[in-house]
Amino acid sequence: MKNHQEFLIRICTLDDIDAVIEVNERELPEDYPYFFYKNILDDFPESFLVAQNTYGKIVAYIMWRVEKAPSINSLKYVNKAHLVSIAVAEGYRRRGIAKSLLSNSMKAIKKYKIHEYVLEVRVSNYTAIRLYEKFDYKIESIKKNYYRDGENAYFMILNV
Fold first, then answer.
1. What pLDDT digit, counting tens, does each position of 15-46 carry?
2. Backbone angles phi, psi at 149, to 5 degrees
């Protein structure tokens, strides 16, 4: 997809899932079983992207799912792109990888006629919040005790 000097953004493959799980388990407190990743890959492959370094190692990923749900602004049912997870390995942060993953995946998932992009983010994750705000996401509400450790989440939305 997109090639930068230090990394390549591309669609995840079945062979990448173990490496994606490794990044997830090392970088995030939320863990998912193998079948969860496989289901996202099977259902929405364009929305499941990885970043690999120049040696071919997976250093980051992003995955979305599409949900049919009432719009935030009306009772009309619309297609929502829901950001399931994004993670960048610690040694690769602050290089624009998350921004590239977000930009590329949002473009790719548009094929599902998306009306809203939604996500949850830890209220303490200032770096991620700033990134989402650069993409014009707005904080819609706070989800109390959203994470397993009891931390609250901001529910953020971008209307298309």
1. 999 999 999 999 988 889 999 999 999 999 99
2. -85, 5
Q: What is the pLDDT of residue 49?
A: 98
Supply the pLDDT for residue 5. 62
The pLDDT of residue 117 = 97
- The residues with which 62 forms a beta bridge, in sequence order, are 49, 86
Kindly give the parts of the chain with pLDDT less than 70. Answer: 1-5
DSSP 133: H
Domains of the chain: 2-159 (3.40.630.30)
C-alpha 55 chain-centroid distance: 23
β 114-122/77-88 pair status? parallel
pLDDT at residue 1, as a whole number: 52
101 to 63, 132, 159: CA distances (angstroms): 9, 12, 19
SS3 72: coil
* Residues paired with residue 10 on neighbouring β-strands, in sequence order: 50
**What whole-number distance in Å separates Cα of residue 10 and Cα of residue 101?**
9
List alpha helices for 2-109, DSSP H. Answer: 17-27, 34-43, 97-109
